[in-house]
Amino acid sequence: MTHQEALYSYCLRLGDNALIQSYRLSEWCSNAPLLEEDLALTNFALDMTGRAQALLTYAGQVDGSGRTDDELAYRRSERKFRNNLMLELPNGDFAFTIARLLLNATYEYYFFTELRKSADETLSAVAAKTLKEVKYHMTHATDWTLRLGDGTNESHRRMQAAIDALWMYTGEMFETDEADALLQDKNVAVDMAPVQASWKAYIENVLKEATLTMPADGYMQTGGRKGVHTEHLGHILSEMQYLQRAYPEATW
Amino acid sequence: MVRSTHTKEDIFRMLSVIPDPEIPVVSIYEMGMLRDVLIDEDGYNVVLTPTYSGCPAMGIIAQDIKMTLDANSVFPNKVSLVYHPAWTTDWMSDEAKQKMKNYGIAPPLHSSCNQDVFHHNIIECPRCHSENTVMLSRFGSTACKSMYQCNDCKEPFEYFKCH
């Protein structure tokens, strides 16, 4: 693997995480339990779309193919997507969406804090920008986790069920592969061990305060990095890519 | 080949009148989004930075810039986006903040955000100046604003979050 291939793979992974998460959050548009949540979740989705645009644009430049962000988003098949499996799972109930947002936004907060120090100027600039936005996502998800976890019996039950169901997808966030190792040698990629430690400490505290139980680490799902996805990604893409598949080269 | 000659100052002057599409009383220059104009043998490159990564107004702003440059025969021209340094409400001029307030949007209170992104100090009502206000929604019509209401004059208003 060359440096260029590793960097392309790294950017694609980060871009796809932002894109797929954004897609799921935007599905709450007009469906959230409160109007304020409709606004909040779609605002987050917008931040993530912007981040995906920046990262996929950079991925296209890095690999030298000249592909644009749109081409990468709309013309790749599911086996070419590199997002974490957790982000493509259907939204479930509001508790599930909040739990996923908490687990992922916390991860992103610590991840981008480190990526801001990257030797790659574009990645470090995107990280600095993202960090400002992800603080809102993390704070919002934390407040809701406390409210629902330490709420009624029903909200507590749903929140716990969501955390339990999502736990086996959290291992994938901290996986590293050849691309990570190569880029870490050049101070481009993030060292995941401290990110994982900070993530775990924060989540543990929030869950405790929310009277929720942190699940024990058991079997962890994996596959996103290799393009092996759940059945749900195909359904996302069939909708997201419809227009460009039906009318290639269509422009706004 | 540069087919026309304009200085950086000329270009800034032309572009500084372009309004922010979401808050038309302030210009993109006053908002701190217009970062630089690079002039070289390839032409004029206007450097723009987004307020928020996904701000949908960026496309319109870039288009407005191109149209203004075209109308003033500034050729060849292009607009490029930069993310570094990340935009901050610190770059908003005091004048812009005052205009925003007169328009009915409470301007960002203090400079750079701290960790505690939602727990602000007192936000003054831009209409009656009462400090007896309450947050209604953390997010509003655009990513950069929260929704508030004044307990005295009862008017709802938007607050431009510090960022």
Verbal overview:
Chain A is mostly helical and 252 residues long. Chain A has a single domain, classed as Ferritin, core subunit, four-helix bundle (Ferritin). Chain A is 65% helix and 0% strand. The longest helix of chain A is centred in the middle third of the chain and has 29 residues. The mean pLDDT of chain A is 97. Chain B is α/β, with parallel strands linked by helices and 163 residues long. Chain B is 23% helix and 22% strand. Chain B has a four-stranded mixed β-sheet with strand order 4-7-6-5. A three-stranded mixed β-sheet of chain B has the order 1-2-3. In chain B, strand 6 and strand 7 form a beta hairpin. The chains are: A mainly alpha (252), B alpha/beta (163).
Considering the chains and any ligands shown, give keywords for the structure:
heterodimer, A: 252 residues, mainly alpha, Ferritin, 10 helices, 65% helix, 0% strand, globular, B: 163 residues, alpha/beta, GMP Synthetase, Chain A, domain 3, 2 domains, 4-stranded mixed beta sheet, 3-stranded mixed beta sheet, 4 helices, 7 strands, 23% helix, elongated
Ordered list of secondary-structure elements with their pairings:
The complex is a heterodimer of chains A (252) and B (163).
Chain A: H1 3-26, H2 35-62, H3 69-74, H4 94-115, H5 121-149, H6 153-167, H7 178-185, H8 192-209, H9 231-240, H10 242-246
Chain B: H1 8-15, H2 28-31, E1 34-40, E2 43-48, H3 57-71, E3 77-81, H4 94-103, E4 105-106, E5 133-137, E6 145-150, E7 156-160
